[in-house]
């Protein structure tokens, strides 16, 4: 819950990339025989799965103890060839599952197919969460939340992501079909569609409740948009009653619930060491190694591989990490271009406090985070009001990895 005043007081330091700089079509990258999925084990799971060689169908849910803890959807059919335990980038306990895919096997999971033919809220929640854009129906199945409106984000929340902007520009009819389907599944009639301001002229005049988002970062952040809606409706943020879906999630829903039922590829932006951006479509589960190979990019000692954009992305230690249902960007940075963080004390310059959109006392927050006092960070310094924009790290004079400390603390408290 956000407790801060919530204001963007400084002029934007950064602007979002525009889709107009990218080609009209993404390159399609098909994995060469293996898909990889990361499943969270959860803090209290003591089950250590072993390789079993089991067959997997298209659309089959992959999970450990129970799908309630989260699941992935197999994008292609095949056979499980390996499972291993893994520690994620913020300490999450993961199990990595490798599937050897079989091109000539096009067998669909029966429960997934049934959900596609006859989607209800319950089935959508049970079977569609692993689709590209990760449509999340859980708030709609929670009676305490009393959701009244659908909010479709045709914008991308990091500065170099273009997945949703691409779909709004080139596949607006699929986005609108997905919104119609979401209304049918949820029984809600109110929907808001947020698009980059430069794409508004491309929308059909019949598109209702369209709002535009300026290019200044972090205007496209979900929490900033939530605040906008509440201000327009003159209601408290705690009473917003919104369910958020990305334009990509809406498109994926309309695709799998059509006659075709094929699971679309994940749309993402690939940024090479020279900063050149390319739009990619690839199945969820494709190892990043395959995308690097496609673009002829090689990692050398000290180079950095980032999954996500420059503000919210995470440096990963292996090219075997897979594209997930929410991977909107992959970046490779040459070691000579990396701005190193430093292990020095905060100089109390206040830049992070001035830039924080939710008025967190970041200079005080970092002091308790650095000594591992996460409970105090949450209770005294509004850790969970943070909207994950990363601006505090971006402006830090002392090059302290403030945002990384914040994410480690949030993950640790989630697991506590
Ligand atoms: S990431 Fe930093 S600047 Fe952004 S909301 Fe969180 S504390 Fe504030
Ligand atoms: S920007 Fe960095 S050095 Fe300045 S007050 Fe914030 S944490 Fe300290």
TrEMBL record:
SUPFAM superfamilies with a match to the protein in the record: alpha-helical ferredoxin (SSF46548)
Residue ranges constituting the 4Fe-4S ferredoxin-type domain according to the UniProt record: 335-367
Record keywords: Iron, Iron-sulfur, Metal-binding
GO CC field: membrane
An example molecular function term from Gene Ontology annotations: metal ion binding
InterPro entries, per database record: 4Fe4S_Fe-S-bd, 4Fe4S_Fe_S_CS, Ion_transpt_RnfC/RsxC
Record-given protein name: Electron transport complex protein RnfC
């Amino acid at each position: 819950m956000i407790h801060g005043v919530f204001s963007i007081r400084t002029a934007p330091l950064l602007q979002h990339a525009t889709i107009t700089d990218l080609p009209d079509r993404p390159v399609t990258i098909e994995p060469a025989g293996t898909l990889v999925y990361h499943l969270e084990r959860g803090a209290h799971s003591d089950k250590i799965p072993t390789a079993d060689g089991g067959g997997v169908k298209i659309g089959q849910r992959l999970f450990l103890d129970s799908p309630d803890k989260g699941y992935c959807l197999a994008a292609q059919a095949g056979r499980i060839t390996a499972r291993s335990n893994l520690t994620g980038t913020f300490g999450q306990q993961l199990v990595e599952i490798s599937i050897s895919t079989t091109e000539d096997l096009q067998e669909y999971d029966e429960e997934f197919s049934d959900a596609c033919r006859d989607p209800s809220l319950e089935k959508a929640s049970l079977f569609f969460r692993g689709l590209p854009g990760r449509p999340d129906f859980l708030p709609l199945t929670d009676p305490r939340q009393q959701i009244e409106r659908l909010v479709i984000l045709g914008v991308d929340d990091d500065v170099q992501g273009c997945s949703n902007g691409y779909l709004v520009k080139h596949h607006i009819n699929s986005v609108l079909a997905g919104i119609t389907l979401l209304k049918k599944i949820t029984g809600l009639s109110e929907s808001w569609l947020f698009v980059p301001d430069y794409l508004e002229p491309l929308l059909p005049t019949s598109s209702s409740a369209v709002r535009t988002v300026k290019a200044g970062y972090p205007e496209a952040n979900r929490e900033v948009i939530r605040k906008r809606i509440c201000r327009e409706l003159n209601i408290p943020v705690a009473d917003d009653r919104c369910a958020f879906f990305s334009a990509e999630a809406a498109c994926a829903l309309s695709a799998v619930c059509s006659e075709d039922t094929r699971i679309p590829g994940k749309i993402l932006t690939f940024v090479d060491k020279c900063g050149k951006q390319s739009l990619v479509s690839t199945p969820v589960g494709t190892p990043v190694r395959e995308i690097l190979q496609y673009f002829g990019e090689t990692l050398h000692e000290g180079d950095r591989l980032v999954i996500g954009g420059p503000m919210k992305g995470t440096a990963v230690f292996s090219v075997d990490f897979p594209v997930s249902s929410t991977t909107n960007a992959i970046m490779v940075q040459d070691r000579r271009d990396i701005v190193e963080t430093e292990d020095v004390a905060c100089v109390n310059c206040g830049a992070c406090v001035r830039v924080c959109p939710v008025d967190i006392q970041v200079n005080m927050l970092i002091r308790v985070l650095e000594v591992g006092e996460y409970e105090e960070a949450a209770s005294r310094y509004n850790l969970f009001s943070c909207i994950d924009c990363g601006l505090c790290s971006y402006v830090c004079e002392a090059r302290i990895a403030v945002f990384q400390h914040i994410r480690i603390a949030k993950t640790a408290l989630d697991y506590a």
